[in-house]
Structures are given as C-alpha cells and as structure tokens.
Design goal:
With 86 residues, the protein is α+β, with helices and mostly antiparallel strands. The protein contains four helices and three strands. It is 44% helix and 27% strand. The chain starts with a strand and ends with a helix. InterPro entries: GIY-YIG_endonuc, GIY-YIG_endonuc_sf, UPF0213_domain.
Length: 86
C-alpha cells in the first residue's frame, strides 16, 4: 500500500502533506528529525491519511491535497476534530 498523509506540527500548528509506503516508519522519521523538510517543526501528530494500491495514485492525491481545494477538503473532512482541538 501507498499512503498520502497529513501531519500537524505540535510546535507551530502548521500542516505537512506527504506520501510513503510505510506510514509508521515515516512518522517516526518525521518525529526523530530525520526528514530535513520538517526537522525544525517537531513533534508531529498524524491528522489524516489515505491508502492507495498504486504509488501514482498516492502521489496524485498528495499533489491535490497541497492545493487550495485540497486543503479545504481536509479542513472540511476534519471539521469536528479540529473544533475540539483548536
């Protein structure tokens, strides 16, 4: 499986969207500082993920979720959760 995921930085509240074929390992890498793009924004919590059987589908979904419409989709999808966590 290939995963598209959204993380939220507990340090600055900003979101990060990415893809991987091993979601648990990638989350550990983000939180241990091994990922250069996010090392200074640790720690992270997993907010959302989707699973795809094809890598190309996961990367296409990642690209979409990084657009304005994709960000709105995630915020609407997580509306109840976000209202509870602030």
């Amino acid at each position: 499986m290939h995963y598209t995921y959204v993380l939220r930085s507990k340090a600055d509240g900003k979101w990060y969207t990415g893809c991987t074929n091993d979601l648990r390992k990638r989350l550990r890498q983000h939180n241990s500082g091994q990922m250069v793009a996010t090392a200074k924004r640790r720690p992270f919590e997993l907010m959302y993920y989707e699973a795809c059987t094809e890598q190309s589908d996961a990367y296409a979904r990642e690209k979409y979720l990084k657009t304005g419409m994709g960000k709105r989709y995630i915020k609407n999808r997580l509306k109840r959760f976000l209202s509870l966590t602030g």
